[in-house]
Amino acid sequence: MARYLGKETTRVDGIAKVTGKAKYAAEFQVPHVAYGFVVLSTVAKGRITAIDTREAEQAAGVVRVFTHRNAGRLGKAPAADAAPQWAWPLQSDRVFFNGQPIALVVAESYEQARYAARLVKASYQAEPHATELESVLDNAKPASDNTPPRGDPAKALQVAAVKVNAEYHIPINHHNPIEPHAAIAFWEGNKLTVFDKTQNVYGVQKHLAEGLGVPAEDIRVVSPFVGGAFGSSLKPNYYPSLTAMAARELKRPVKLVLTRTQMFTGHGYRPQTIQKVRLGADANGKLQAIIQEAFHNTSSFETFSDNTTGFLKQVYACENLDMPLKVAATDLATPTWMRAPGAVSGMFALESAMDELAYALKMDPMELRLVNYAEVDPVSGKPFSSKALRECYRLGAEKFGWKNRKPEPRSMRDGKLLVGWGMASSVWGAMQMPASAKITFRPDGTATVSSATSDIGPGTYTVMTMIAAEFLGLKLDQVTFELGDTRQPQAPAQGGSWTTSSVGSAVRGAALTITAKLLDLANRDAGSPLRGVSADDVEMLDGRLRLKSDTSRGVDIAELMRSTGTSEITEVYKSTPSPERDKYASLAHGAQFVEVKVDPELGTVKVTRVIEITACGKILNPLASHSQEIGGVVWGIGMALEEATEVDHRTGRVMTANLQHYHVPVNADIHAIETVFVEEDDTIVNPLGVKGMGELGMVGIPAAIANAVYHATGKRIRSLPITPEKLL
Q: Which SMART domains match (predicted)?
């Protein structure tokens, strides 16, 4: 009987967060620190012909103004014949996007640095730029993660009885976490310490080693708390290297915090996406062909792909399928991963098209999905390690009251409001990465557990504490879990919804190894009540090592450690995915049912009710898990109805670079949300049986909302966000 796993557990770091004890990157106190403020370019492409820093340098408190002319070297010097690149800040006079850093002002106070930054004057030789995806589609190149088509989709489409042909658009979206990006860097001799807002301390360490020409082991990156990131801190951003370079040049600590506006070109974004979907089905709704061509933008100096259609190929049983992704270079900063990357964009198009097909067939949208249900993985032909999606559909429809839906658009009302019901499916990979964790167990019944993972908000501190307490037989307050420091054992970036499966498996492994070591100690004594039993037969609980099948047989752990002169036991354990996984396809699934109410005179849309059913293996902490799924739904509402980064294509400048103009959901936008889990018993996916859920909760929501809006209004909006003017 599990004591913690599967039970609602409040955050172990909750009190630290609400009392201000939790330290975020910019909050570490470092003596004699100077403050940096970045100056950004105002053209999208070209070169800097002159940069005048004299007035800024004479301003009060200014220590130095760094530009490409006097900045320390970052990265290797480019080869003479190499194409111009932007890999490191302040390394050349070239400008690749509007909002690229062109100077760093360092002063004695933040206010002085910010004021002096306004006094830096740059002149440019501008070149023609292109920031609109539509204008560069002809230059799009296939993404590296494309797989060949299945069957002969073009031919199958020709002969299909019922067809859908539609194009879907998604604008650029930005992450906008509460905590702005920040770093503090200081050198002690040749050794560097950086406090950074990151989802991957080891990734930043490697990046800084390359940039600064310093061995990685001489660089310590620390990031114990992250105030939201959603992918914006997965790749190392430009500001830690800039901060570390300035600190080295000035021989004193430097702190750099980006403003909200600077974050709009400081860390990537969800790329702009155009998708052309063609579906063909027979008269009974069985899919004959799926062709989904996806295009999204990348930057001119780096190819990025968010794998828009990757997971989509595994969703429906269809013999003829082609889902190519092409990326096109624009004169903008490089996009990056953003919660549910690729999948939420791809599923918006696919699940909207499936809804269009259901209307063309005069068929219930859920029935259409059941007709095309994939019993095995359509890509590999392998069985699923577990798949409870059918149960998600059934339970969701029942809870939502789906059977009472009138199929005709505009047929349901609440007073003068039009009522719409829509649904969609969601999918995400159930991944596990190699990860390590260290446990030190002491005779007084306390343990310290550490791994260099992150906690960007999902509750990593809590779930790792729960796993350690469960397998060491301790109470939660006897376990201290530490993360976010390159002095700890290596862990993967916190992204992709793989943290619990990866790091959690390492914590479990370390705890079980300590159990086995204690058994070895006990069995040195010929009279031990546990002689002859194997490590799998025993467990630790409340200070005793005991036989699972007969709990009266056991030894006192503190006494055992004392008598054998063992002051503590430390174990570092590396967990890796089991070879057994290769025989199966592992995915997490879900179904979303959404009700909207639309004011026909104003075109305003309210999402009044959402039922989201999720199948993602075992739920270790239901309290945190429901919170994750609700957060995913809220963000899905934002993506569907509000979020859009507007670019002025004449200048290539982001116009909505603040929270006044970049709209995100607020309390008034959110009504009833119910999240339900269908637990799966999956022993193949990892030893804990968990699948990721952080991304999954968002995947189907924008499509379900768009489908509900069509049901309410009879208007099919194929470009997000669905704003009032599109409905009027």
A: Ald_Xan_dh_C
The separation between CA 121 and the C-alpha centre of its own chain, rounded to angstroms, equals: 38
State residue 1's pLDDT score: 55
Q: What number is the average pLDDT over the span 446-456? A: 98
Give pLDDT, residue 146.
81
Distance CA 365, CA 235 (A): 39
CATH pick for 273-431+582-727 out of 3.30.365.10, 3.40.50.970, 2.60.40.3080, 3.30.360.10: 3.30.365.10
Which burial class, exposed, middle or buried, applies to 536 when counting CB atoms under 10 A from its CB (0-12, 13-18, 19+)? Answer: exposed
Q: Is this prediction's pTM over 0.90?
A: yes
How many angstroms separate the CA atoms of 361 and 453, rounded?
49
Q: In the CATH scheme, what is the code of domain 25-40+45-128+181-257?
A: 3.30.365.10
Give me the mean pLDDT over the 471-492 stretch. 98
Catalytic residues: 695
In angstroms, the CA 95 to CA 126 distance is 9
Q: Long-range contacts made by residues 724-728, C-beta under 8 angstroms, separation at least 24? A: 724/602, 724/603, 724/604, 724/605, 725/603, 726/603, 727/598, 727/603, 727/605, 728/602, 728/603
Which parts of 59-208 are beta strand (E)? Answer: 62-67, 94-95, 101-107, 121-126, 141-142, 162-170, 182-188, 191-196
Distances in whole angstroms, Cα of residue 554 to Cα of each of 468, 514, 529: 21, 16, 6
CATH class for domain 433-576? alpha beta
For 237-260, write each residue's pLDDT tens digit: 999 999 999 999 999 999 999 999
pLDDT of residue 2: 77
Whole-number pLDDT of residue 81: 82
Give me the pLDDT at residue 593, please: 98
Domain spans of the chain?
25-40+45-128+181-257, 273-431+582-727, 433-576
